[in-house]
Fold each of these.
Amino acid sequence: MGRKDSTVNQTEILGQIRNLMSKTDVDYTDEQLEKLASLVVLLCKWNNALNLTAIREPDKIVVLHILDSAVISPLIRDKNNIADVGTGAGFPGLVLAILNPDKKFTLIDSIAKKLSFVRTAMTSLGLKNVTIINDRCENIVPEERFECILSRAFAPLCKIVEWCENLIAESGVFICMKANLEDNELNDLPKNAQIESIIDLRVPSLDANRKAVILKLH
């Protein structure tokens, strides 16, 4: 759909992904790394036409989208039915679906043009474990509530809980990825939200404070 970007070299992208992923605790196969590299190329092409993300350079997409999403994978090892709310162009959901083909992912966003890219990526990469919902979280009545709700740079924690309370299973968890976590954001959580843990996320080649806030409702 977008015009071809001749500066995107998939072999170089694959090498960068392989090098950085080797510095994480994430399990992966060579085939999965190749799919991640293909995702970067696809995003670069579509980004020209649809302005899906402000991050345009392939090497920065690898760090700020692929690796930043991948490092959450160890936290969902015991989850099977997972929603990615406010997925945008499919991060972290597409990356995690590639790395965890045995799990079901539902990618949710209210912006149709971004989900059109997600749909194309699903087809191009042969992802059978992904479904998409084009709607606002608070409007959705799922057939089955989710064991895990992921969010990445989506909204304040209190809003995520408010908007997604109808989506989470009784024993489910929220995993909220945060770049800058302030005390007031934690203090503003509703009384039915309990902080299980706050985990430091280390993203290779990224000098930034990344955390995953794990929440449960009671």
Note: The beta strands are 81-85, 104-109, 130-134, 146-152, 168-178, 193-201, 210-217.
Amino acid sequence: MTLAPDAVGRPPQPRPAIPALIDEATVESIAGETWIALVGEDEVLVPIPGDLPEDTLSAWVDVVGPWTGSVVLTTGRQTAADLTRALLGEAAPELLDHEDVADAFGEIANVVGGNVKAAIPGPSTLGLPEVGPAPAVRNPADVCRIEVCWRGQPLVVSVQGALPSLPVPNTQHDNPHQNGASQ
């Protein structure tokens, strides 16, 4: 077996932080397009910051690939319920249960996350949506975050890296022979 000359002796490449791969304008565009597609043309996200209420709910999907992390949407619980009603339209039950909200909010996170994954270079996989308290930001340098409002209520979209990061594959072998042959 022959190793490619450029792979021999090179140190492993560090995983890129998300700001090197995607910017706030792209995340805002993805979120806005998703909103229009799923919630309706009259339902837009306004790019102005707002303070989240104390009672929040988050929905997220994990992205695993050259960059690994989560795409997290966070808003107030009441806003998540209002969003569920807007998403379901006339099919919305009079009384929403937690599962209705989790399914609808999780679906929006899934679509936003899938589009973020598609915008990041390299092959990646997307996990299933999860809903609950927001996952902790583990590395502030590995976050791309936007703050928007929907119907006057704040919503945060955070693309945040997972730490500790996954190990980088080692291309060097511990074999003492220069060509990598076994004894």
Note: The two ends are 14 Å apart (CA to CA).
